[in-house]
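Example protein was shown:

_____
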Amino acid sequence: MRTFPVFALLFFVVPLVEIYFLVQVGQVIGAFPTIMLVVFTAVLGAFLLRQQGLSTFVKFQRAMAQGEMPATALLEGLILVVGGLLLMTPGFVTDTIGFLCLIPFTRAWIIKGLSSRFQMRVLSSASVASGSTGFRYQPGSGPGRDDNGKVMEGEYTRKE
């Protein structure tokens, strides 16, 4: 799928949807309360972004200190940045999506979906690159590993 049409569609559709909802809410509660509500959600979002961002940074540091790859913390950080940007955009739809990015439970759900989608793309491109349609990725498999995924030690001699 080409990204330009998707971004062009989002560039035109999202503002129209936001304006529609702002007008509808403004008609129900009035213009000033609507503006205050938008400002309040931005301030609350900034506060939650700071709190969740610090928590994610601590997870990142902890993973690095243990010598692990902090992939989950990096994805959480990316989703937090997207959520923060959405919260800074005036409107109720973007605020809702932004808040969903800040809630740990929904953020974990988003990460799980993105991870499985990304993993499928990597596996399918690896299959195409290897030229074999029967390519299957098995965690722990590969050169120098036994059937249980444990590293096999040994010596070898190269003969020419």
